[in-house]
Amino acid sequence: MTQAPTFATEAPAEATELLRFATAGSVDDGKSTLIGRLLYDTKTLFEDQWNAVEAVSAGRGDEYTDLALLTDGLRSEREQGITIDVAYRYFATPERKFIIADTPGHIQYTRNMVTGASTADLALILVDARKGLVEQSRRHAFLCSLLRVPHMVLCVNKMDLVGYDEEIFKRIEKEFCSFTTKLEVPDLTVVPISALKGDNVVSRSENMPWYQGPSLLHHLEKVHIASDRNLVDVRFPVQQVIRPHSNDNHDYRGYAGQIASGVMKPGDDVMVLPSGFTSKIASIETADGPLQEAFPPLSVTVRLEDELDVSRGDMLCRPANQPRVTQDVEAMVCWMDEQRPLRLRGKYAIKHTTADARAIVKDVQYQLDVNTLHRDEAVEELKLNQIGRVTLRTTKPLLCDDYRRNRSTGGFIIIDESDNRTVGAGIIV
Amino acid sequence: MSDYRVSHLAALEAEAIYIFREVAATCQRPVLLFSGGKDSLVMLHLAQKAFAPAPIPFPVMHVDTGQNFDEVIAFRDERVAATGVQLLVASVQDAIDRGLVTEPPDGTRNRIQTPVLLEAAEKYQFDALFGGARRDEEKARAKERVFSFRDDFGQWDPKNQRPELWNLYNGRVHPGEQIRVFPLSNWTELDVWRYIGDQGVELPPVYFAAEREVVDRGGMLFAVNRFIRPKDGEPVFTEKIRYRTVGDATLTAGVRSDATTVDQIIAEIAATRITERGATRGDDKTSEAAMEDRKREGYF
Questions:
Q1: Which of A175, A201, A413, B263 has the smallest set of CB atoms within 10 Å of its CB?
Q2: What percent of chain A has pLDDT over 90?
Q3: At what angle do helices B189-199 and B262-271 cross, to 10 degrees?
Q4: CATH number for domain A17-226, candidates 3.40.50.300, 3.40.50.970, 3.10.180.10, 3.65.10.10
């Protein structure tokens, strides 16, 4: 990629789907080069960005134009040549719009990886074909399975440096597959690539005729994500009550929110939690008019046939399919605070769906070593980037599901009440 | 919609509406920063949709450099009147007259907007300020949270940002601190234009190509107006141009264009190979980290 690209002029088509994917990697596994390659080959990279990167690279005497300069946006990152934080990148093809959450791979950035994976439809893990699986690859795979990222792609990169050797690829593929059988990885695709040379990134490579699978981009465009949403369990956390107080809409009372899961229709029986009152959906409204059915991730306003006392933090569900209502929460917690650890008996604020509560740590059951999956049961606290199983008692009932079943009603954040910082993320088990 | 598929624009809209509602439900005194530019017009449109049929439950505020395109100010006032929302104007000229800020020798007022913004936020005790910034605009922005915490001095600390997981945004602040909220974080320039076309969002005329008298300064075309005066001997010529961004009139350049409709603009943008800010904003060319530095000071 030492040549400036030739820029084509075709526009992506209308009504494309959105796919969010997370990448994790360290300085030299070629992640930035791969992202640069995707942006470059989908013609997302702009001329002025290219020129700026080329100028900086040339000024530093780099052998190649360093595409990491595109993603490393902060001054300290460029100075230190490392990625510190999650960076968001965007590109589109005629099939889909993509949001990349690009996160650093080193263990000290576990919290950033967890953040990037929390919203991802797909996780992209890179390994260097010369080195094979390393501790970091296993850790990434574990974190993505913990966060229930529905699809995983392992890219075996730098195939050009191992002579495009099928045996090397097969060996890494087999080792990774055997590791992931111990995790919960519902969908795994393994692709041999060279990000630098472009093999199997956008189009199938002639250098690896033995590989019969899709190119990476083709897979990103085609992987079936529509079924990843939970369309079974109706969960509608109420964000706000809309009451116009105007003469035209004097009696209007609507419940605004984003559908977390399930499909809602006018006429459906619903139950309001935690009160337990039941009613029927009178209408599902948007500023563009009423909907005959509504599903995730749409933001709508639901009106009920009966006047009930419903407020922010309440949840609408079906009478025969309710979330758990509990003050005792078992969760895997990733601690994100560098100043203070999570402590036994510690008190925190938590945010779960649209509800706020306070919680006390009743038990720290174990800390999990994210590299070996070994459990240390002697601990009484979790430090920055540590993950462990914790028991919480909340001041009011949470309306929740297992994270495994529902990523929206199964996750929460932990907030330090003294300074309002977000200090942890919890996954309800 | 029976196959439960959602287009990417519908998904982005749903996310933005969710963000508007979260802020309205959890913050004490939100305000929407509103200039009459396309991103802020899209923001106003989304805010209307988020609370319909109720009115927008917060005011809008323009940090007015006093160096705006006249058409944009006229359009701003027209939209405010049509929406019925309250408009607050924080005037940079007034702040210069009062001695709060000093006009830089080059006459550009971009950077001195910051103290004016912070003063107004303090005066009205705003704890949440909506901005139309997008992560695709600039690489420091690519790292900024949707709910971006600012301390008592309005400063952004890129190394000490609150982790942002799922859609659980943390908007808690102590008195004097603020959250800047960016509902369009995940939109690209093309998404904004597609949405404008899809929703029929009205825009001021400067966004559409017309024959304008221009001067060429460093490869950028600036239309001659009451802020851009030709220097001695500087050639003035007529070009068909439009504006991709509408910022301070003293440093926002136009691009050559034949696009007089939103569809034509979308076709041109899809084909363009230069970023929005790179093409048209003198203020970002200062250095590799120009935006990061300004944001640290409390800029939008």
A1: B263
A2: 68
A3: 160
A4: 3.40.50.300
- Cβ within 8 Å, pair B292-A73: yes
Nearest-Cα residue of chain B relative to residue A99 = B186
**Chain A, 258-317: which have a CB under 8 Å from a chain B CB?**
258, 263, 286-288, 293, 295, 297-299, 301, 312
Domain ranges of chain B: 8-191+289-297, 203-284
> pLDDT (tens digit, 9 = 90+) per residue, B235-291?
999 999 999 888 778 888 898 999 999 999 998 887 766 666 565 555 544 455 666
The burial of B218, by beta-carbon neighbours within 10 Å (0-12 exposed, 13-18 middle, 19 or more buried), is given as: exposed
Contacts of A293 (CB under 8 A, 6+ apart): A263, A264, A265, A284, B1, B2
Q: Which residue matches tokens 């890494």?
A: A172
Fold entry, domain B8-191+289-297 = Rossmann fold (3.40.50)
Q: Are A88 and A98 in contact (CB under 8 A)?
A: no
pLDDT tens string A213-244:
999 999 999 999 988 999 999 999 999 999 98
Backbone angles phi, psi at A399, to 5 degrees: -100, 95
The bridge status of strand A269-273 relative to strand B255-256 is unpaired
**Residue A403 contacts B where some CB pair is shorter than 8 Å:** no
Residue B11 with chain A: CB contacts under 8 Å: 18, 297
Question: In chain A, whose CA is at the least distance from the CA of B54?
Answer: A244
ipTM: 0.91
Could A18 and B51 be called an inter-chain contact, meaning their C-beta atoms sit closer than 8 Å?
Answer: no
Q: Which among A52, A297, A301 has the least Cβ separation from residue B6?
A: A297
Using the Cβ of A85 and the Cβ atoms of chain B, whether some distance falls under 8 Å is answered with: yes
On chain A, the residues whose CB falls within 8 A of the CB of B6 are 17-18, 295, 297-298
Report how far apart, in Å, the C-alpha atoms of B237 and of each of A323, B9, B39, B71 are: 68, 39, 30, 21
Tell me if B17 and A92 make a contact (CB, 8 A cut-off): no
Model confidence, pTM:
0.92
Residue type, A180: T
